[in-house]
Structures are given as structure tokens and as C-alpha cells.
Design a protein that fits this description.
Layout lengths: L2 H9 L3 E7 L24 H15 L4 E4 L1 H6 L1 H9 L3 E4 L12 H19 L5 E2 L13 H7 L4 E2 L29 E2 L4 E4 L2 E4 L3 H6 L2 H14 L5 E4 L16 H8 L2 H14 L2 E2 L1 H16 L1
Parallel strand pairs: 1-2, 1-9, 1-10, 2-3, 4-5, 5-6
Antiparallel strand pairs: 7-8
Bound molecules: zinc ion.
């Protein structure tokens, strides 16, 4: 290989790839239509969908982080072990998708404690990362990072630094930061791109599914090549599943957002994981923490 070839490989940024492991009936958009108490009676699709994702990642030789609900881990122990055995990180997405800003500190502490016990028991590995349901850590939850640090978490990826109708903390930094300067805990926000002075959501989920692939390619290239920083991308198992049951009573806007382009999502993801370099969030958090120390020194 030529010297310039080696150089370009070394310069290529390793991005963070993540899956928020929840079933089709656990999404924020349907929380007013489907009661938590009814979840156990619904047809679960999460295992078949995660299995498909594991095969996709193996094929592309990428490792990722699976932020999993404690509720799901408790009922899918074999799946949790399989994720860990195939070299991926298993991390926490909280207990049952309650948003952080709907809880007080004590309730939040209980939520993440309970989730972690179930996830660690099921997967047989230590959990060091957390992603808030619906990116719900924001200016209303100043105690959340204290609680995460106290419970020994190394990192969080729980902030969307944009304004959005369901979530967002628009004043937050775009890239990894230490929310409490005296603690090691790192927050790694989901990716945004900049266009005409505005921040655009570009870290996955519905935006990736609904917009043309070229938008995500442009955004991740901007982050990697212009900003020289890693992108943080996420999606959900139900997003690759056109066969999931339809929720009739949900608002039209939620249904449009949830069911659009489920059939082309898997192919888009295959292209994405092949086109860029990806890795686990815990390794990314470690690199970002070292960088923060370098900057502080
Ligand atoms: Zn979620």
C-alpha cells in the first residue's frame, strides 16, 4: 500500500454506531395509545429484528452498541448474551422508555438501577453506557448526570443538540463534552450537521429512514472531514421490519413518521455501514474522554 493510502486510513474517523433496542409498541410516538400494562400481551418482534441486524453487522464486519430497555433484557436473556458474544457492547436504554424529564432524581435513579441489573444479568457483561429514551436529558434534568456518575456510568449518549417537536436541547454542544467538569463522565450527543447557520438532525432514526441516503452521506462526511469528529448514528430494530403490526389509534403524524420507508431501511443501513467506519460507543467514549483531557491540559 502506498504511503498516501496508509495516511488516508489513519485519518479516517471511526464513528459510533448504535441500536436502541425496543419493540414496535414501546416507541415514544405510541405512548398515549398503548398502555405499558398491555405490553406483555403484544406480539414481540424484537428478537427476529435484532438477529437480522446482527447478521448485517457481521457481514459488514462492524461492531456497535445496543442500548437496551431493561424490560426487553428481562424477557430476552438469550438475545442479550448473543449480542455480547458477537462482540458488541450492551448498554442501557433505561427500564421502560419513560423520558428522563418526566421523572425526579430518585425515580430516575431507580429506573437506571433496575434496568442495569436486568441487562447485566441477561448479557453477562458490565454496562457502562446509557442512552435516555427519546434523548430526554436536557436543561430540565440537571441532576441526571450526577445520578449517572454516582452509579458508575462512563458515558451517556442522551442529548440531541437541536430543537425538535418531541425532544432536543438546542444549546448543548454538538460534540462530546463533560457535563460536570469535575467528573469523568462524558456525554456524546447524537449527530447534527450544519447548513446555512442552522443545526440539522443527522444522527439517524426517522430522519435517516425518510430522507434520501445522500443527505446522511453529506452530513456524516461534513462531520468527519470538515469537523474531524466522529458521527454518532442510531436506529431501532422495528425500523427494518415492514411486517410489524399497525397501531390504528395513533395520531396521523406519528403513524406517518413510524411507517414510512420501513421496506427500504435495511438496504440503506447496509450501504451506510459499508461506506463509513463504525465502532462501539464505549470505545468512542474512551477516545473522546482522552481528547477532553488533552484539551484541558
Ligand atoms: Zn428509544
Amino acid at each position: 500500500m502506498s504511503a498516501s493510502g496508509l495516511l488516508s486510513i489513519r485519518r479516517e474517523v471511526v464513528n459510533g454506531l448504535s441500536v436502541d433496542v425496543e419493540d414496535w409498541f414501546q416507541v415514544g410516538a405510541f405512548e398515549d395509545v398503548i398502555e405499558r400494562g398491555d405490553w406483555d400481551g403484544l406480539a414481540t418482534r424484537v428478537e427476529r429484528n435484532v438477529n437480522e441486524i446482527l447478521d448485517m453487522f457481521d457481514e459488514a464486519e462492524v461492531k456497535a452498541t445496543f442500548f437496551t430497555l431493561g424490560w426487553v433484557a428481562k424477557r430476552n436473556a438469550a438475545l442479550m448474551r448473543r449480542i455480547a458474544e458477537r462482540g458488541h457492547e450492551v448498554a442501557s436504554h433505561g427500564w421502560d422508555h419513560a423520558r428522563v424529564h418526566t421523572m425526579d432524581r430518585a425515580e430516575f435513579g431507580e429506573d437506571i438501577r433496575k434496568a442495569r441489573i436486568e441487562i447485566e444479568d441477561a448479557a453477562g457483561v458490565a454496562v457502562t453506557g446509557y442512552r435516555a429514551p427519546s434523548f430526554s436529558i436536557d436543561r430540565r434534568t440537571p441532576w441526571a448526570y450526577l445520578e449517572l456518575a454516582e452509579q458508575g456510568y462512563a458515558y451517556s449518549s442522551s442529548v440531541a443538540p437541536i430543537a425538535h417537536d418531541h425532544y432536543g436541547w438546542r444549546e448543548a454542544p454538538r460534540f462530546a463534552f463533560k457535563p460536570l467538569p469535575w467528573l469523568d463522565l462524558v456525554e456524546i450527543p447524537v449527530t447534527t450537521a450544519e447548513f446555512a447557520g442552522k443545526r440539522l438532525a443527522a444522527g439517524g432514526g426517522g430522519f435517516f429512514r425518510v430522507l434520501p441516503y445522500a443527505f446522511s452521506r453529506w452530513a456524516i462526511r461534513q462531520v468527519n472531514r470538515r469537523d474531524h469528529r466522529p458521527a454518532v448514528f442510531y436506529f431501532h430494530p422495528w425500523e427494518i421490519d415492514p411486517g410489524q403490526p399497525r397501531v390504528a389509534g395513533a395520531p396521523l403524524k406519528s403513524r406517518l413518521r413510524h411507517y414510512t420507508k420501513l421496506d427500504t431501511m435495511a438496504d440503506k443501513l447496509r450501504q451506510l455501514v459499508k461506506e463509513f467506519r463504525w465502532g462501539r460507543m464505549d470505545l468512542l467514549a474512551h477516545r473522546e474522554a482522552m481528547r477532553a483531557e488533552d484539551l484541558a491540559a
